[in-house]
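Long-time lurker. I teach an intro course on protein structure, and each term I like to show students one example going from raw sequence to a predicted 3D structure in token notation. This year I'd like something fresh instead of my usual example. Would anyone be willing to generate the tokens for the chain below so I can use it in lecture? Attribution to the forum is fine with me.
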Amino acid sequence: AEYMGQREGNLKQAEYHYMQGKDWKSACNMYREAGSWEDAIRVAKLGGGVNESKQVVFAWAAQLGGQTGAALLEKFGLVEQAIDFAIQSGQFAHASELAGRCLKSKVPYVYLKHAMFLEDEGRFREAEEFFVKANKPKEAIDMYLHQLDWFNAMRVADAHDPPSVTEVLVAQAKDALGKQLYEEAEHYMLKAGKPEMLIKVYKEQKMWSEAQRVARDHCPKALSQVMADYAQWMHHNELSGDPAVAGWPTFS
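-- Reply from a regular --
Happy to contribute to a lecture. Here you go:
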């Protein structure tokens, strides 16, 4: 309720009544509406403590905006906390502006948080933009890999993080393997320069002819081990009486 003193413009009298009724928030809002921000801060600190008074400073700075608002936050030593508060409130433009004016080292952090928010919202192209701005292209690549969006993962890797190209190719290969698309998997694995991984897969699948071919053509140092492993597998089958000879290779 509005006290008589407040209606008559006697804010101090109104404050007294509010505080007597342990309603410091109404007293604070009264001062804010009257533009008496320093009194609003004082009342908030008195009634709600330091954290509540900081919220009033943040609101004052946001109302002032620009350099004036930034200067106010600097005066109170609250720039970094104000940036974090703006991020938590989803006010990324305000957070970026504050960081750009007062704490440039924090700008990439703001961009990263914005990117993560956009990713959670499913706004992947916008998220990519801010991951790259934050100098975290790998995060954008991982985001696209998670979506099995190979084209965009490769595009970002090519443009911003060339070492990740191999990772994208291997991820594509593994996805193809999961679908038993071995020719496709082989294409990506060899393009990634990972013949050893491919040989290992073929050996695990008892695809001995393929393992031999890849070793001979792309990783000669592995050929003798492939032949030894095949011989051991055959010997085990003979001992166990297993007639299976699937994948019988021609070593020539």
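Some talking points for your students: The mean pLDDT is 90. Residues 223-240 form the longest helix (18 residues).
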